[in-house]
Amino acid sequence: MSDATTTTPRSFQEIILRLQTYWAARGCAVLQPYDMEVGAGTFHPATTLRSLGTRPWAAAYVQPSRRPTDGRYGENPNRLQHYYQYQVIIKPSPPDLQDLYLGSLAAIGIDLALHDIRFVEDDWESPTLGAWGLGWEVWCDGMEVSQFTYFQQVGGHDCKPVSGELTYGLERLAMYVMGIDHVMEMPFNDPDSPIPLTYGDIFRQTEEEYSRHNFDGASTEMLFQHFKDAEAECERLLAFDADDPKSGKRIVMAHPAYDQTIKASHLFNLLDARGVISVTERQAYIGRVRALAKKCADAFRLTEAGADL
Amino acid sequence: MPDLLIELFSEEIPARMQARAREDLRKLVTDGLVEAGLTYASAGAFSTPRRLVLSVEGLTAESRPLREERKGPSTSAPQQAIDGFLRSTGLRLDQLERRADRKGETFYAVIEKPGRKAGEIVAEVLETTIRTFPWPKSMRWGSGSLRWVRPLQSILCILSDETGAHVVPVSVDGIAAGNTTEGHRFMGIGRFTVTGFDDYVVKLKRAKVVLDSAEREAAIWQSAHNLAFAAGMEVVPDPGLLTEVAGLVEWPVPLMGRIADDFLDLPPEVLQTSMKEHQKFFSVKNPRTGRIEGFVTVANIEAADGGAVILKGNRKVLAARLSDAKFFWENDLRVARAGMGEWAEGLKAVTFHAKLGSQAERVERIAALAREIAPLVGADPDDAEWAARLAKLDLRSAMVGEFPELQGVMGRYYVLEALQTNPAPDLIREPAPDLIRGLGEASGGPGSSPGRASAIADAARDHWRPKGENDSVPTEPVSVAVALADRIDMLTGFWAIDEKPTGSKDPFALRRAALGVIRLVLGNGVRAPLLGWLRRAMGRHVSDTLEAGQDLLSFFHDRLKVYLKDQGIRHDIIDACLAMPGNDDLTLLVKRAEALAAVMKTEDGSNLIQGFKRAANILAQAEAKDGVEYSFGADPKFAETDEERALFAALDRAEAEIAPAMQAEDFPRAMAAMAALRAPIDAFFTAVQVNSDNEIIRRNRLNLLHRIRAVCSGVADLGRIEG
Q1: Where is the DALR anticodon binding domain (chain B) (predicted)?
Q2: How many domains does chain A have?
Q3: For residue A283, what are the domain limits?
Q4: ipTM of the complex
Q5: Each residue of B678-717: pLDDT tens digit?
Q6: Between chains, do B153 and A95 touch, taking CB under 8 Å as contact?
Q7: Cα–Cα nearest to B701, from B609, B639, B613, B614
Q8: Which residues of chain A make contact with B138, given a CB cutoff of 8 A?
Q9: pLDDT band per the 50, 70, 90 thresholds, residue B401
Q10: Superfamily, domain B602-720
Q11: Among B467, B431, B425, residue whose Cα is nearest residue B446
């Protein structure tokens, strides 16, 4: 499985391209990022919703992810409020998923004979999605490079069959593979390109802008209102009769409702970064988002894509 | 006599679950085999991150045939009864035997169970074991419904005897047992066949797997020690970490690195915790500087470059971690130097319990209580109050946020820093002006002398102790005052809102808190009526403190009984002392119980109980019959025998001895004086008939018995002692 001749990638995008090629060759549908603000690749409906029901599924995609509280104005070498995750989701989880994963590490230039790869217990839980699974964080020479999870429950539903989920923290992994100490110094495209761009060329300014926005700029009043709106809209959409009079079809609006759940979750994260949510309120907000996620999961199970075959 | 080898090969098993899993596998399989009629000579279980293994030696080749005979109903019994017997035995009527007996004829069922082959039994037992294995957390995978800790990939199950190794035919959820396995994930040699345990161990080692975790532990420790020794350093022992790391690798390869100079000034506890919790590194100490200057990481692979890349990577990860820690440390020191007001403010926003208010409110209560307790433990009330106010502030520090296990340890550093910068910080005036009472400038502030500052800072660290049964109790008076106040506030608070522990449920660890109070009081010989403390503290939560206070005191008494039982003092001896007044002074109570336990071990002591009980019984019967209490002074002039006169004299002596001894709380002396009554009491009962025909003499004797009861009852309630 290890290919000792694999060269070290020269840029951030080369790592992404190699992962895309690798997983495409293993039969995954290579999807594009979801067009909404999410906290992690797991929120993409290709993972959350598609891990429900019995229909087989295999997808891989990059997902830009936002963690407003992690903003460091572009100064911290490892922390970003906007970063990329690479996500692989396969249902049912294949018996050789660990080997497939290790193959992907080799594909991006990690020589498995030279590095110390370890699967260290880490139980994954997303209180906002009502989801949990068992698996590991994968260590490479003591550094966590991926999350490896067998989904047991999503949106309060048992996962049958079980999906296997792989999440790579792309910046951290790329920095490690290329030996870069500060994320902003990492080549984004090939350093020999006519116009070489670093990660900092692309994201330093936005990290500053969003850090200020997340911690001081965003209107909390508006955020609170939008949270309520998203919550209400989600429930309103799910309350529709499944029979659509116009098309004459049975249409459950699970995805549009789920979009509102994603919105509510991100709005909550922003409010959290603004420091206006107390410890006790925090649990209540997480519970409200989870309630939405569960309802969306219930609705998706009534659709063709989410039903049991 | 075949040998059995089982290997359950899976994806990585969490390290913390392996020891328990080994024991469960051994027990479940061997119990199952024995229950099915097999015997075995020995069994051993092993684990690596990817396999759980059981080797059973000297197994019987088949189970003994069993013949079971059951008596049924009479042959003339109603059909219903006969049908019932047939159902329960699973036989037909013509299979039953009829035997004549005294009552006529009775049905008998004779069930023959032939011996079964070991393989058949092993297959059943193994399948049941896998399907019911008690993992603390288990999962499903793929499309299957089997649960295991992580996906189970293959099963090796062979019985080996002189004819060779035979695969036991068992299949669980599509995984059929075989006679092959594989070695190390990266250094293995593909799948290989196994013929028995010895062959298995040898081949595994060739495939770079050390099967026995104890062997891996020893190898890690030896190699880590050698690496450090060669560099003039020493590894800090950590048995828990050693066990964990041995559960993370199949082929341990320790590597040593140095911590970058930038981080060497961090507190050693921070370095150790950061390295251990996040990276599973051992700390390496330089004996010349006394500092933690290096680390040992344990890789799972013999890398082609001797581990250079692995070590470099680990060093880099550590540097990133320690940069965070250093950032927290420097930020926290800045807040500490500014008087920690930011953290005090922050505690207001932290809810301790919905019904018990914020952490800040709790700190207020602890501070007031610590002040009250201080004089009784020899602490200065001002210092105790200060310490209580400062002791919980580190909960808001960035470092404790990152490493909760450093609570207290960091508190000590930060309090010292705060008091060195400003001996009388403002903090205390802000939240509670009415509690100043001579603090601050008037007393020179808590940091006005190095001794006071360090006692107050130590309390931030030590008021958490004792953390568990094996942790010692603090002895510094300020720490003791805060530690007691902390726990008493917690217990009285939860009692006031009726959140007491029930059965196995004790979500707030109140039993541990009560045991903490008991150990703090006893360990420091604190003399004080506990009930008063409890009621005063309870008064901060509810107005009616009498009933809840008494209830909490009985909870303490229950915990004390458990505690003393562990120290070898019988529960009835404790009961005899609990029945005495002043039972909320735990130190006194235990002194009394210890003295009583000691005297009960003597012959006089244990025999005295018989005499005492005899006297008490006769007296109780007479009092019930006559409807009077015999407590009127007995008069020696009515004594008829020498034994009677001797008892009078002995009681006089005992009374003269016991009263001052009790006054001086010299329980051993009082108990010895009491035990000296044994001989005269025994002699009295042998020679004297209490129920004399002469009513005057009878009454006098009953009054004499009353003196026995009275004298002894001044020492302990002997009626509660068994035997």
Answers
A1: 612-711
A2: 2
A3: 219-300
A4: 0.94
A5: 999 999 998 888 888 888 888 889 999 999 888 888 888 8
A6: yes
A7: B639
A8: 134
A9: confident
A10: Isoleucyl-tRNA Synthetase; Domain 1 (1.10.730.10)
A11: B425
